[in-house]
Amino acid sequence: MENKIRRYHWKDGKSLIVGEKTLIMGILNSTPDSFSDGGQWDHECLALRHMEDMVRDGADIIDIGAESTRPGFTPLSAEEEISRLERILPQLLRECPVPVSVDTYKAQTAAYAMESGAHIINDIWGLQYEKEPGQMAAVAAQYKVPVIVMHNQKGTEYTDLIGDIKHFFERSAMIAGQAGLEGKYIITDPGIGFGKTAEQNLYVMQRLRDLTVLPYPMLLGTSRKGFIGKILDLPVTDRMEGTGAACVAGVLAGCAIMRVHDVKPIARMCKMADTLKV
């Protein structure tokens, strides 16, 4: 893992080391319609309280999103997305003691967030959103911030699922390089729950080691996802144990960051998995 250790420092004094231990990214959905917790944290005081709870429980990063990307979601314009973020993000950045990631695939939203002082871009289209070619990479390069490039595609047809994901990441890295963003700022994400069937999600989980050998730290986002519900026959809110098992598997396969709703129990599980990892 030594070659994948990343040390990030920001001008507001915050810092982050990726690769020394498993990091926990706590999910803060500022949306009325997210698949798991829509509407719970879309008011400023509730969002800030939830942030404080997650940091106390072990979150190393807070990931705020203003547009639901659940299956069948209705896209927002960048202006609408920014309007939602404006209610919460400025105070969140002032009060949050850990780095803040902004979950968006729109360059205009990312530019607003980075100009406001956010620290990381979390892009579900991995710098490859077809309506804005090259624009997200340009924002990340301008602000010299880490960007999480998640694998995604329309439909679920693949020639070679793992090979196609690797090719996607290679293309993302090429786009980043063309924009002037160094490879040390790239964090990958296999995109569990995006552009994949439940069976394909499970296959990716079983083959994570084939992806963590790439020269980038990897984030894993399995929290309460549909494939867990299918395996355990459980509704969204009862999938914490399944999420924990998936996260432990991710730790043992070499993933560096876990993006989760249930911070406290998952942080404990990951700490134990880190200790047992050979």
UniProtKB/TrEMBL annotation:
Keyword RNA-binding belongs to the record: no
UniProt cross-references to InterPro entries, sorted A to Z: DHP_synth-like, DHP_synth_dom, Dihydropteroate_synth-like_sf, Pterin-binding_dom
Q: Which keywords belong to this entry?
A: Folate biosynthesis, Magnesium, Metal-binding, Transferase
EC annotation from Swiss-Prot or TrEMBL: 2.5.1.15
The UniProt catalytic activity note for this protein reads:
(7,8-dihydropterin-6-yl)methyl diphosphate + 4-aminobenzoate = 7,8-dihydropteroate + diphosphate
Which pathway or pathways does this protein act in? Cofactor biosynthesis; tetrahydrofolate biosynthesis; 7,8-dihydrofolate from 2-amino-4-hydroxy-6-hydroxymethyl-7,8-dihydropteridine diphosphate and 4-aminobenzoate: step 1/2
Where in this chain does the record put each Pterin-binding domain? 22-271
Required co-factor(s) are:
Mg(2+)
Single GO molecular-function term? metal ion binding
Q: Which Gene3D superfamilies match?
A: Dihydropteroate synthase-like
Give me the Gene Ontology terms describing cellular component: cytosol
Q: What task does this protein carry out?
A: Catalyzes the condensation of para-aminobenzoate (pABA) with 6-hydroxymethyl-7,8-dihydropterin diphosphate (DHPt-PP) to form 7,8-dihydropteroate (H2Pte), the immediate precursor of folate derivatives.
Q: Which PANTHER family match?
A: FOLATE SYNTHESIS PROTEINS, FOLIC ACID SYNTHESIS PROTEIN FOL1
The record's family statement is:
Belongs to the DHPS family.
Protein name listed in UniProt: Dihydropteroate synthase
